[in-house]
Write the structure tokens for this entry.
Amino acid sequence: MKKAAPNALGDTPLNILLIGSDSRADAKNVALGGGKNERDRKPLADVQMLLHISADRKNANIVSIPRDTVVPIPACKDEDGTPYAATTNRPINETLSRGGPGCTLTTWESLTGVYIDHWMMVDFAGVVAMADEVGGVPVCVTTGVWDRSTATVKGGSGLQLPKGTTEVKGEQALQWLRTRHAFGSDQNRAKAQHMYMNGMMEKLQKQNAWTDTGRLMGLAETATKALQVSDEIRSVAKLFDLSMQLKNVKLDRLTTATVPTRAYPPKPNQWLEMVPASADKMWAMLRDDVAFDKNGDAAGAKPSASAKPTGPTAGAPSTLGITVINGTGVDGQMSVDGRASGMAKSLQDKGFTQATASRSTEPRKDTVVTYPKAEGDQAKADALSVARSLGLPDSAVRADAKAESITLVIGGDWREGATYKKPKTEAGDLPEGADDKVDCMEVYSVYRWDGKSKS
């Protein structure tokens, strides 16, 4: 996976995968989350959010995939070397047990086509520590809530809050993030978790955290103890620098969203699957750094006079070997006959005389131009020249460890024409049901609390 192309000012988006582990390996986690009999069970990634900070650092998105969503999971290896074969019929929360945070990150990159810069993982005890350091986070419920065991549903987080807004911290913050039954579903739990994230951002801004170096340094120091993070940010100074990337994001430019899902047919009462069109649109917006909100400056970034192209110059078109593959037969659509040969002819007419059509097919949703990873920057420059000649965005160019030459795979998004026309996506144009920001969480009737009965 390659990092997104820089904008006109030479800046790139920042993507951080946030993982919530349900590990009970530590005594503190058992005390907070129960499950003494689960000490030896490999942890699941019950919370997964992608934090995307725009290239201009003026807007940010937090995107969740519910834990029981079935997705393709690539082949991974656990820390002890245990291999796990790729699978297409398991929920995304199992990625953590199949190869640690690296497997979860790889799964997200494969799903979205988005380069992820860093990962951060927190367990039960870490949530408590961070909530205490912030000093409490405001959350809201429309009625009193008590998430407890009932005659029909066992378990529950133990969350007990009165109607209205409460600042939760410590164990109560953990209970809020873990509550599912009282909010009705996994999707609504994600909505509550997003309310918490918005509340934390609001609290930090009120504390002037980004102008108070001591305050932010204290948060970074706590984070080094409360979080597990990828190697490249494993220090107080690096976490401090990373947190500063959020200093210019205003609250009305922080969007929280959950990928729309539906019942997974083989297990409709247990698992979910993403709605393909909705997920594809959201991933494209992330890849292209299109804001999820409509509150930005429509003018956008202006090119810098000092910005200059970097890297080697592409080879002459006539010297580049290009294989064209028809991948249009995807998502139930028939493959477009002659699409590969037609595009090979178009490339030849543009001077890429060595372009040839392959008889093989490779169904995929999006069109890509791949190049041999081993050939480095020169092959990348060559592939970019091919993509640009066809009107494809730079984000369509990707390195491939198995590629032997430049390969154009024509996806289901380009079924006709010799010049690619990128689907227009406007800021704030999220799929229906994705934007899940609410002022107050509704409480499922069984778990409503009158504020008087004892816990």
About this structure: The chain is about 25% helix and 20% strand. The two ends are 50 Å apart (CA to CA).
